[in-house]
């Protein structure tokens, strides 16, 4: 048996350890639901069977899209693999695979240009909103079309052209603005060729829209629409009205999908961002 003095010492050590270290606490936000509920709805084989009509057990805490599909199937309405796959992507806190893939396409394309700076971090396509949440802002087609346009600019003016590098610097700012506030376009050399000035103006308008500056974006697009020489004029005339559309400025709207000009995908807002290939300036003003 232990003596009273030893027991007192052991008790003191235990109290000291409790005060020093405290209770263990988990870090990070709480899960959205039970750990056994897959945010994507299950494995591929199970999902395919589900889309074909095998509903299984419907759980109240399943993803809302999964519950919607279950409701359709239980009422004899089809879902199908194409619609089911799209609905099974979680709405929040999970990257869109296409956005991720195309952002990597852009990252790979830009390094072909001489002198471009290395990106400091992964491009963040979502913008922050209230309550530490985020909302999608830049989508996969934006990155894909930027990469395609860059290839056209390289073919026209060369990967070593300082003007092509300036174009990349501008587009880097646009994509930085997808997930960060207070981003500004880099200053453009007054001696820049006409094609770059036109592209830079359109990039600036896109950045304003990504940053939530709806009035500024509308004014920028309107100015482009008045420029008869800009290859972006036809789209700018349409996009002038887009930033002021109802709901566009609501930072906390559920499921908000504000996008810079154009990153057209099925079921989403239309537009084109840096879509044209060789511009009307390509036959002259080569630097």
Show the helix and strand layout:
Elements: H1 4-21, H2 44-51, H3 64-74, H4 81-87, H5 97-110, E1 126-128, E2 134-136, H6 140-157, H7 162-176, H8 194-210, H9 214-225, H10 233-239
Antiparallel strand pairs: 1-2
Q: Identify low-pLDDT runs.
A: 17-33, 245-287
Main β-sheet, in a few words? Answer: 2 strands, antiparallel
Estimate the global geometry from the Cα principal axes: extended
Please give the count of helices. Answer: 10
List its salient traits.
disordered C terminus, two-stranded antiparallel sheet, mainly alpha, 287 residues, extended
Describe the structure.
The protein is mostly helical. Among the domains are: 44-87, no CATH class; 97-244. It has ten helices and two strands; from the N terminus they run αααααββααααα. It has helices spanning 4-21, 44-51, 64-74, 81-87, 97-110, 140-157, 162-176, 194-210, 214-225, 233-239, and strands spanning 126-128, 134-136. Strands 1-2 form a two-stranded antiparallel sheet. β1 (126-128) and β2 form a beta hairpin. The relative contact order is 0.09. Residues 17-33 and 245-287 have low confidence and may be disordered.
Short synopsis of the structure:
By secondary structure, this protein is mainly alpha-helical. It has helices spanning 4-21, 44-51, 64-74, 81-87, 97-110, 140-157, 162-176, 194-210, 214-225, 233-239; strands spanning 126-128, 134-136. A hairpin with a 5-residue loop joins β1 and β2 (134-136).
